[in-house]
Amino acid sequence: MTACAIEPSADPGNSGAPRAGCSITAAGAYAARLARSGPDGDAWYPERWTLDGPEPYAVPLPGNQPEEAGTEVQPMGDGRVLVHRVAAGRHVFALLYPTGPGTGELPLGAVECPADTTGLRLLPPAPDGERAYALAAGPRSTVLWQVAGGAFGPERVVEIPGRCSGGVWLDRTGRMLAVDRETGGRTKAVVVDLERGGEVSPLLQIAADSDDRLLLADPDSGLVLIGSDAPTPGRERLGWGVLGSTLPVRFPECLRMPDCVVTP
């Protein structure tokens, strides 16, 4: 389970958490991030890291022009890097790979979101390393897209009632995905079963009037890290538990950090 980074809680942004600067495959073999170049450090390009060799090393994957600062990148299990760009209101996806001195690019297609959608963002890397997913959140529902690994480009998987955020894989096969769904003014983690047509079922219900978010999960042990305001209404605390256990979620005092936002 990945350690937490602690940051000042001045302005967490619309999603409540800063966007991760580096993405790592579930197997831990590759990572990807946006790196800076240019005399003023204002030009961005994707960078892939290989982590499973004798020592880590980076391969730059610059395109024909610098990337926008908000471009998302994600490593795939075969070493290619998925890039998510926004152009003229369309979300465009492609796979990047090194080709000697240059960068090869395989276009995957694009997704157009309704005007009331607040944005589309990549979910954490899928466990199999072959697929990639994204959430497009609207005011009343959220669409889950498979943006890589499909037969014909981006494919709409399911529309989930409520506004969803987060995203945690619960198994090693990429079947069970947990997201944090906001409905009726409360946020609760739910499970989306990708092998049953996106069937949604409850996951966390610590208290009827609490906000319960899933932050991290270890598929092998079932250990989960939870953010909830159940013990202190209106103020989120970190807790841990085990999926399927009859024991209650624990909220240790050592994980209580005032004036900080704690994110995976």
Could you explain the architecture of this structure?
By secondary structure, the chain is an all-beta fold. The protein has a single domain, classed as Prolyl oligopeptidase, N-terminal domain (Methylamine Dehydrogenase, Chain H, 7 Propeller). The strands form 6 sheets. The protein has a 4-stranded antiparallel beta sheet, with no helix packed on it. A 4-stranded antiparallel beta sheet has the order 6-7-8-9, with no helix packed on it. It has a 4-stranded antiparallel beta sheet with strand order 10-11-12-13, with no helix packed on it. The N and C termini lie close together (9 Å). The N terminus is likely disordered.
What is the fold's blueprint, element by element?
Blueprint: E1 5-8, E2 22-24, E3 30-37, E4 43-50, E5 57-60, E6 72-75, E7 81-87, E8 90-99, E9 102-112, E10 119-122, E11 132-137, E12 141-148, E13 155-161, E14 163-169, E15 176-183, E16 186-193, E17 199-202, E18 212-217, E19 223-228, E20 237-242, E21 260-263
Antiparallel strand pairs: 1-21, 2-3, 3-4, 4-5, 6-7, 7-8, 8-9, 10-11, 11-12, 12-13, 14-15, 15-16, 16-17, 18-19, 19-20
Strand content: over 45%
Low-pLDDT runs of 5+ residues are 2-6, 8-19
State the fourth-level CATH superfamily.
Prolyl oligopeptidase, N-terminal domain
Query: Span from first to last CA?
Result: 9 Å
Architecture in CATH? Answer: 7 Propeller
**Share of residues in helices:** under 10%
Number of strand elements: 21
CATH topology heading: Methylamine Dehydrogenase, Chain H
| Averaged pLDDT | 88
Placed side by side, the strands forming the largest sheet appear as 2-3-4-5
Structural category: mainly beta
